[in-house]
Amino acid sequence: MRVFAAVLFAAVLLVGCGGDSSAAQPAGSIKVTMTEFKFDPGAINAPSGKVVFFLVNAGTAAHNLIIRDSAGKRIAGSNLVSAGDSNVFTVDSIAAGTYTIFCDQPGHEGSGMKGTLTVT
Q: What pLDDT is recorded for position 22?
């Protein structure tokens, strides 16, 4: 019985540590695939207001998506998404404008993991 309890406890811990890899893409969300070292698509268009991103990490390293305005100010940022996982990232309110998206993991932006978000 102790062995079964230990195995069950370990399984619960592993499930709790995982990402949302089995999560389906929410209706109306913008799918962004992250790999080394790019976003696909690299140029994203979205309406102003609430924007929902469905982030899929198809790479081998952890990535995130950070939104920065033209003055270099961080507007919003996703959680870190482990390799093979997905995550829903919601920005509750974003004004019209042109923004830079990038991964803030060391060396990723410098390696080309950046793009443009145009909000209308």
A: 52
Q: How many angstroms separate the CA atoms of 102 and 6, rounded?
A: 41
Model confidence at 23, pLDDT cuts 50, 70, 90, reads confident
Residue 64's Cβ-count burial label (10 Å; 0-12, 13-18, 19+) is buried
Q: What is the DSSP string of 6-38?
A: HHHHHHHHHHHHS-STTPPPPTTPEEEEEETTE
Distances (CA, A) of 5 to 13, 15, 17: 12, 15, 19
The CA distance from 47 to 33, in Å, is 20
Contact 53, 89 (CB under 8 A): yes
| Residues 6+ away with beta carbon under 8 Å from 24 | none
**Cβ(75)–Cβ(92) below 8 Å:** no
